[in-house]
């Protein structure tokens, strides 16, 4: 009876769904970290709608419950009174399954008990602007390397390392398991994504216009860097391009991936190196959903529209100004790397948040091991 009510609850969302601007995604990130031999591995689950975290579960938390991470999720108490209890039980079950799977992987890799090992899993779905299923994704990584992923075109598992072949064969041999994977990614996941977008539409479907500025940095005699910084924008999808005499500049250009600002918006910068005196040849072009037309910026020269945006921005052109997270001397290449450890996928902002989560988990694990090695001289993390 409960399952029927849940189905009707989700089905109502399809009737209410509007045409959204751009695609949207629902993703869950699982991280399991083995601790010392004296403690069970830690399991953390984080859920995202687009670039916004909305739920989290931590097996080391006092509550041992799935918790809301977005204000709009408070509406779920009225929309679906059983939601939190039902999903808490589900994520606890997932925690047990994935902790056991981490132990299985240690056996497949002939690793002895103890030590720090990390299993990561990402799964979810994406819908197009009209709300229809676009694609699904499910993949695993172990100790910082790709392990296994699902090809959702053929619904076959692709082993990234020899140790994953056994899992691939056993899962593909289980017809009902494969059917459940397909049904979740193409149907249930899509229904829930529709529901979350409806409940949180004021936050998830908003558009915040970017503010932008160009700063000037001299690092070596005769060589300078112009850095184009944008912030305060939502959604996260944005394009930054450096042009030289109107032509796109690909050489000597460095980027950082889009990062969360901590207030529900995002930030990004792109830098270009040149010989001093060439600055007037370069233009930064910004394209975003919140702009009626591309924004163009030059060092020391802005259009009237650009000036209006800059006046509303906290950004200031200052010699040697620190940019985005305190990046100092020089311009470093921080472009996304392949899918390893941090699950760096299409949404780079998510990867930053996952990086933070994994960093915290590893720090806790390291402190735990140090506590055992140093006896009681250090507290367990």
TrEMBL record:
Record SMART domains: IGc1 (SM00407)
Tagged with keyword Nucleotide-binding: no
Keyword Membrane annotated: yes
Signal peptide positions on this chain: 1-21
GO biological process: antigen processing and presentation of endogenous peptide antigen via MHC class I via ER pathway, TAP-independent; antigen processing and presentation of endogenous peptide antigen via MHC class Ib; immune response; positive regulation of T cell mediated cytotoxicity
SUPFAM superfamilies (alphabetical): Immunoglobulin, MHC antigen-recognition domain
Entries under Pfam families matching the protein: C1-set, MHC_I
Highest taxon in the source lineage: Eukaryota
Stretches assigned to the Ig-like domain: 210-296
This protein's GO CC annotations: external side of plasma membrane; extracellular space; lumenal side of endoplasmic reticulum membrane; MHC class I protein complex; phagocytic vesicle membrane
Keywords: Glycoprotein, Immunity, Membrane, MHC I, Signal, Transmembrane, Transmembrane helix
Subcellular location: Membrane
GO molecular function: peptide antigen binding; signaling receptor binding
CDD domains noted in UniProt: IgC1_MHC_I_alpha3
Transmembrane portions of the chain: 350-375
Membrane topology: Single-pass type I membrane protein
Primary role: Involved in the presentation of foreign antigens to the immune system.
Family: Belongs to the MHC class I family.
Protein name: MHC class I antigen
Organism: Monodelphis domestica (Gray short-tailed opossum)
């Amino acid at each position: 009876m409960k399952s029927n009510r849940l189905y009707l609850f989700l089905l109502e969302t399809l009737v209410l769904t509007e045409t959204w601007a751009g695609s949207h995604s629902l993703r869950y990130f699982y991280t399991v970290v083995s601790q010392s031999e004296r403690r069970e591995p830690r399991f953390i689950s984080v859920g995202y709608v687009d670039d916004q975290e909305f739920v989290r579960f931590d097996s080391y938390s006092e509550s041992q419950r799935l918790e809301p991470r977005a204000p709009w999720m408070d509406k779920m108490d009225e929309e679906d009174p059983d939601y939190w209890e039902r999903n808490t039980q589900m994520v606890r079950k997932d925690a047990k399954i994935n902790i056991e799977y981490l132990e299985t992987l240690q056996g497949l890799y002939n690793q002895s008990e103890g030590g720090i090992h990390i299993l990561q899993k990402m799964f979810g779905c994406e819908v197009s602007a009209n709300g229809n299923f676009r694609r699904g994704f499910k993949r695993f990584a172990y100790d910082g390397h790709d392990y296994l992923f699902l090809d959702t075109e053929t619904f076959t598992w692709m082993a990234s390392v020899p140790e994953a072949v056994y899992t691939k064969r056993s899962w593909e041999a289980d017809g009902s398991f494969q059917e459940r994977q397909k049904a979740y990614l193409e149907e249930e996941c899509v229904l829930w994504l529709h529901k979350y977008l409806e409940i949180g539409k004021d936050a998830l479907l908003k558009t915040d216009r970017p503010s932008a500025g160009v700063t000037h940095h001299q690092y070596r005699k005769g060589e300078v860097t112009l850095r184009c910084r944008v912030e305060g924008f939502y959604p996260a999808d944005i394009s930054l391009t450096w042009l030289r005499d109107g032509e796109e500049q690909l050489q000597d250009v460095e980027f950082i991936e889009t990062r969360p600002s901590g207030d529900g918006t995002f930030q990004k910068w792109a830098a270009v190196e040149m010989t001093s005196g060439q600055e007037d040849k370069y233009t930064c072009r910004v394209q975003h959903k919140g702009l009626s037309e591309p924004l163009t910026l030059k060092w020391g020269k802005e259009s009237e529209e650009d000036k209006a945006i800059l006046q509303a921005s906290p950004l200031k052109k200052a010699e040697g100004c620190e940019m985005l997270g305190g990046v100092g001397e020089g311009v470093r290449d921080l472009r996304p790397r392949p899918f390893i450890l941090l699950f760096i996928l299409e949404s780079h902002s998510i990867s930053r948040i996952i990086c933070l989560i994994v960093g915290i988990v590893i720090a806790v694990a390291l402190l735990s091991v140090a506590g055992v090695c140093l006896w009681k001289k250090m507290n367990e993390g």
